[in-house]
Structures are given as structure tokens and as C-alpha cells.
Amino acid sequence: MSERPRVSVVLVAYNRRDLLIAALDALAAQSRPADEVVVLDNSSDDDSACVAAEHPVGARVITLDRNTGGAGGFAAGMAAALDVPTERAPDWVWLMDDDTIPTPDALAELLRAVDSYEGPVALLGSRVVWHDGRDHPMNTPRKRPRVSTELMDVADRAGARPVRSSSFVSMLVNTKAVRYHGLPIADYFIWNDDFEYSCRLLRHGTGLYVPGSVVEHRTKTFGATDADPGPRFYYEVRNKIWMITRSTALSGPERILYSGAAVRRWVRTFGRSTQRGVLARAALQGLRDGVLKAPRSTTVVLSGLPVSGAVARLQGRRP
């Protein structure tokens, strides 16, 4: 890079003030500090917005008057981060939830990989671990298939690996890609929003997994999202159907591949569940809404909120 890139953190918070403080402490301790921290408070019932505003990291806090889920929170936060004067516009946005605790060199390692990679990069993801150091199964990136030996070598020299998808638990996104592809689909609310968004950006773009950049995902339990999700299984089914049938993120062969993978995952979820009746009802509702409805535009979903103007300006005529 010829100049120091500007990086804005977008951190989505909801009712986890103690974890939020730990995340902000970790951001303040970065060896390469971000240029701005935007905390998007998703209408928390606790004092998350207050602790964020009072934290020494100096975050810009945006509080919504309704919970828009992770999908809406990231869309809103990204729009706000980019809706600034040109001289303050970020080159990258670093996305994370309030239970993401980056190690001190997490951002520096992501930017080092950008600087070392021989070509444009749409996004990069960190290695995500649980509190005991094990790789977190909830945030495993999908490897990019059929990558040439030459491109593998290029990525290897940058200390990275090519991927087809990434997680919002520490995703560094090139703002050129955001302006071209638009925002995450806010109507997903939770689940598969980062899968759809990263796949959309990486269908023709380059994504890198950077194992030297490490963050801790402080979930209550160790496991993937198919560990007995209860009523939230509705979002898994509906959103996966929306992604496979209505998103531009996947090619034709990938739609077939991921359809099979989704069915296998759902069968596995049912097999492990202790509340199969709850899952069955959620799955049927998700199947109905996934087939009969389409996701509303992000501009519509986030209308009436403090960020609605920024969202509309960034989205333009996009859905």
C-alpha cells in the first residue's frame, strides 16, 4: 500500500454490556488501531449504548429504536461508517459482534496480508477461536474450490488461504466492494446473512483467510449453529432457501451443492435435537416463508431509523 489505509470498525451490540466492554478494551489495545469505531446498538435493554459512549476507545455510538438483528445491525453500521466526508471515508470496514474479542495484532495481521497479496482483495477473515484456543466451529470459512497452484502460492506468500465465504466474526471488507455490491440483506435478521454476503462479494472477488489474525468468539457453548437451535431454526431454513433461490451469491452448480449440504445439515440438526417438535414447526414456517416470500429491500427494512438516509444513499436502486 502506498498510503496508510483508513479502517472503520463496525461492532454490533445487543444486551451484552460486559462482553461489549471486553471487545472495546481489545480494540483499544490493537497494535494497529482502527481509525474509527462505530458501535451499532440494536435497541439494547441494558446500558450497552452508555458503556460504549463512555469507553476510552472513543466510539461513535448509533442507537436504533428497534432490534434489526445481526443482519440489519451490520447493514446499518456499515452504511453509517461509509456515510462520511470523503477525507474520512474508510478504505476498509472491520465487522464484528459484541462477543468478538480480537487479539492485539488481529487488525495488523489482516492489513499485512492485504499489503502482501499480489492483487485486489474483497475481504479477509480472521482465525476464530473459543476461549480455550480451539478453532470455533461456528465460524469456519469455506475453502475456495479449484484454486490454481499459482494462486495458492500467491496466497501462501501473504500468509493466507483463498476462501469462498467468511464470517462476520472479524471480517475486514474492502469498501470498494461494499459500494459495488451493496449492504447485507437486513431482512435475514439472523443466520446466513454473513454467508450470503461474503459469497456475494466473493463470487467473482478474492477472499482470504488469515490464520495469523486471531480473535476469540466468546459464545456460551462450543459448537456450530446446528446444536439444537430451537425456534431460531426458522431463520436457518427460510434464509438458506432465500439464498439458494433468490440471491446472486451462488452459481448454478453451487446452488445444487449447497442445497444438498443444507438438507444434510437440517437432518443432522433434527437427529441431535431434544425438542424436535419445536424444530419441526420452525422448519415448516421457514419453508413456507422461504418459498412464498422474498426478502424485503434493506432500504425498506431499515426505514424510519437514524441510519435510513445513509442506507438509501449507499443502496441506490439495489434490492
TrEMBL record:
Keywords: Glycosyltransferase, Transferase. InterPro entries: Nucleotide-diphossugar_trans (IPR029044). The keyword Membrane does not apply. Signal peptide: none annotated. Pathway: Cell wall biogenesis; cell wall polysaccharide biosynthesis. One of its GO terms (molecular function) is glycosyltransferase activity. The keyword Transferase applies. It holds the Pfam family Glyco_tranf_2_3. SUPFAM superfamilies: Nucleotide-diphospho-sugar transferases. Belongs to the glycosyltransferase 2 family. This is Glycosyltransferase. The lineage of its organism: Bacteria, Bacillati, Actinomycetota, Actinomycetes, Micrococcales.
